[in-house]
Each structure stands twice: as structure tokens, then as C-alpha cells.
Amino acid sequence: MKLIVGSNSQIGKSLLCNFINRENVYVMSSNHLKLVNFIKELDNKKRVQVLRFNPFEKFSPPSDVSCIINCTGISDPKRNQDASTISEDYSEFLDFKIINYLKKNSNICYFSMSTGGFFLGCGNYDDARKSREIKINLDSRDISYYFIKKLKAEVVHRKFNDLKIIDLRIFGFISEFLDLEANFFLSILMQSTIKGIKFKTTPSNFIRDYIKTDDIVKIIDLALYKPKNDAIDIFSKEPVSKLEMLDLFKKKFNLKCFDIFKEIKPIKKPNIISNCEKAKKIGFVSESSSIENIKHFSEKIFSLHKKSKNLL
After folding, report:
1. Closest C-alpha among 150, 170, 155, 139 to residue 272
2. CA–CA separation, 197 vs 257, rounded Å?
3. What gap in Å lies between CA 118 and CA 259, rounded to an integer?
4. What's the CA gap between 290 and 171, in Å, rounded?
5. Which of 4, 7, 10 is nearest to 170 (CA)?
6. Which of 43, 135, 163, 286 is the most buried (most CB within 10 A)?
7. Residue 211 and residue 172 in contact, taking contact as beta carbons nearer than 8 Å
8. Mutual orientation of helices 290-311 and 185-195 as an angle, nearest 10°?
């Protein structure tokens, strides 16, 4: 059975809802009550078994756990600045406990959710779309405590090359559980659409790559057959530009009032995408593009928001 750690996160919830359609799953979170309340609303809740995590005890999951998926960590840039040190120290502490467990249970495969956020894509829009070139982002204005912790975790994981530890690098993710209060471009864009307020942005363009839950599940299924210590980038069928996202929201979701203002000092936003094709070598092929994923889940999120509003 699979064990999802950090099941209250957007990715954790999304994976849980996907897996329980086909199998039983163990889940664990530092916020036990929040997790239990979420599971109560699920159709297949009988397939979920909630485990408690005691930080003062050894990490010791049930003996039938064959795969651990770690989704812990705060990725919202604003929250990282305000109060992420405790959360990320918890993530590092939990990661340490899981590795110690793996040392005595080397048959278990461990997937750790990492980020592509510490990479910078090509500066040129067309080149980025063609080559997906990347380089490490060491600009202190863009890098955060969260990114540093994730990069450090990858370095630690590679040291244990005899253990089945796979870091899954996510460059952008969207699901119906997207946190609209987060300080992300897509979250702010959706909030502006829902509230009907003016969305302010700049003329500069950038590239992002938004995958969906099925992409992560497909990678996990493929990597389980030939597990090895490695880091794998997950990407959609095609990335998307900021201007394409704005155009979608304008035409499809009636975002009529966005104000593109000129910057006094233009700030070049990095293109956060990948050119690494390790995923393809194990058989991974994404079935949908970033813009298709955004369109699909935006419709879901707006529909859920409308229903909840009607209930008030």
C-alpha cells in the first residue's frame, strides 16, 4: 500500500483523491483534525486509513507499506517569507526520519515532492519553448527558504544512492484544490476573476509549466517498476506563457478589466520550465498541455465557488 505524508497539501489531497479510485491508501499529516475532516467528505473514504505522526517516536508505518510519498512543505512564496521556517524544519525532520526507516527497509520506494522553482529557463520566449534550457537560479531576489530546503533535500537524497529515493521536481501544478489565497500568479488571477477586481500586471512575458495529478501518478507508477535513486522533472505536453493565460481568462472567464502598466525598472521574470527528459526514458508522456490543464481546473474551481456561494 501507499502512504501519503503531508496529505493536507494541494498535491497530497489531489493524489489521495486519485489513488482511492483504485486502491486503499494510508495518509498522514501534522494537522490530523484537518485531514480527518477532509476525508469525511470523500466518496471512497472507506479506502483511506489515517495514521498519526508522533515527532517524538520513530517513523514506523504499517508493514504493508511499499511506497511512501512525501508531500510536506509550504510552497507559497508569501508564507515562506512570513512563517515557513517551522514548517520547512518539520519537513526536513520528517525526511530524516523516513530515510532512517528506509535504511532498515530498503525495499520501500520513497517519492519526495521537490520543486523546479530553483531553476531559471531561457530568457527568450521562443528559445524557451523550443529548447526548455535550464540553469540554477541563485538570484537572492527569487530564491526562497523553501527552495533552499528542497535543493538541500535533493543533495542529501543523492548521498544514499543505495536507497530507492526519487525526487519529483514540479515546476507548476494545478488541481481543484489550488489555494486561491496563495501568492502565485495563477491564484491571484483566479481571485481577480472571481471578485471581478482589476488585475494588474506588466507587459513582460514569462513561461510556466502546469502539470496535473494524472502526470504525477503516471510517473509514480512507471518509476515503481524500475526504482532507483534519482531526480525526475515532471512536465506537461507544452508550457504556457503569461500572455496566453491572460488571453484565456479574458475570452473564457470574462476577465475584462486587467490593467497592464509600465514598469519604471523592468523586472525580467524567469521562465520556470524543464528540458530534462529522464521521464520520457521511463515511458512518461503527458497527455495534456499547460493551457488545457489551466482551462479544465479553472472551470472546476469557478463552478465549486459558485455552488458554495449559492449555499450561503
Report:
1. 170
2. 7
3. 29
4. 11
5. 10
6. 286
7. yes
8. 40
* Closest to 215 measured CA to CA, from 197, 242, 241, 235: 235
Burial of 178 (0-12, 13-18, 19+ CB in 10 A): buried
**One-letter amino acid of 180:** L
Please provide the DSSP assignment of the chain as one string: -EEEESTTSHHHHHHHHHHTTTS-EEEE-S-HHHHHHHHHT-TTGGGEEEE---TTS-----TT--EEEE--S---HHHHHHHHHHHHHHHHHHHHHHHHHHHH-TTSEEEEEEESTTEEE-SSHHHHHHH--EEE---TTT--HHHHHHHHHHHHHHH-TTS-EEEEEES-B--TT--TTSSSHHHHHHHHHHHTPPEEE-S---EE--B-HHHHHHHHHHHHHS--SEEEEE--SS-EEHHHHHHHHHHHS----EEE---SS------B-----HHHHTT----S-HHHHHHHHHHHHHHHHHHHHHH-
Domains by residue range for the chain, with CATH: 73-179+210-239+273-288 (3.40.50.720)
